[in-house]
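Now for one record:
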Amino acid sequence: MGACRAGWRRYSDGPGRAQARNRIPATFSTEASGVVVLSEADVRDGVIPPGEGSERLDRALARLWPDLSRSRLQALIRDGQVTLEGAAAGDPSAKVVGGQRVAVTVPPPRPAEPEPEARDLAVVHEDDDLIVIDKPAGLVVHPGAGNDRGTLVNALLAHCGASLSGIGGVARPGIVHRLDKDTTGLMVVAKTDLAHQDLSAQFADHGRTGPLERAYLALVWGLPAPATGTIDAALARSERNREKIVVVREGRGRHAITHYRLEAALGTQEPVGLVRCRLETGRTHQIRVHLAHRGHPLLGDAVYGAAFRTKANRLGAEARAALDALGRQALHAALLGFRHPRTGESLRFESPPPADMARLIAALTP
């Protein structure tokens, strides 16, 4: 397991275990970026495990090698990378029975389409399967329209290099959750197919039955009442402004639940709450929209708190200057916990608010 860098806190428990593979050396390079990525073909031999009668080839292989997703195995079968009793198997739905010998060749991952771009990353933890980073404000997570360069994915491609074993056969980081561009804090990213599958399942469960734990710190206008509660309100994209998310009637949008707790009452003339939020679902802009719906938009949120902008004039001079310097919504992903996909170890990380948000909190503290 990798180490946790100073400045963050990590808690873990549970044993580790190793997995051996047979490999054939291979090399490729991405000439456009000047980055050379060394990789290896992964050759695996095995015997179809016994079962009740026959079953699909792709399903049997997924039981034999659970670190490869079923969709990845289907692609390998169609590409002629799987042999059954020495003969090429081209049909994922072909029936097999226990005791048949099978071989799979997993080619080295192809270079990702986004170009690697070196930049400083606050790496909290890293090992062969995943990386945990503390995302700064202003960093877009994934390339998209208008953001094909300078994203977290571009930076991770440069940082991880040859340690990316491939997500779906492509040498790319596996994004299993996202933070808004101007939201700071902890994110975990998969480096292998196994980690991508397992972490995706944990995030889809949202901690209802599994170990996933996420908590955010937010500064909001006013003091929520009651001080501890749950916001259960469906969300959907606004029909008037497709960049915004709005609360809608249940059945018209996606189910969304946010649990909150007032951590501290701040401010003097104008009350401000330091709120801790825990997500039971993970919708776009969920915390920002839910708290605004309750009448407590986040400080600095130009999208969902524009009507509260004049309240800043009632803050003290120091707090007003700190809010202007923040220049974004006051939201930080402060806690992230999950089960390690390979070892089963419980990992838990905490991150303090970034310096600009910490200055605002200090200025608001009576």
In short: The helical segments are 57-64, 70-78, 152-160, 193-205, 286-293, 317-326, 355-364. The longest strand covers residues 35-47. The two ends are 43 Å apart (CA to CA). The domain at 42-106 is CATH 3.10.290.10 (Structural Genomics Hypothetical 15.5 Kd Protein In mrcA-pckA Intergenic Region; Chain A).
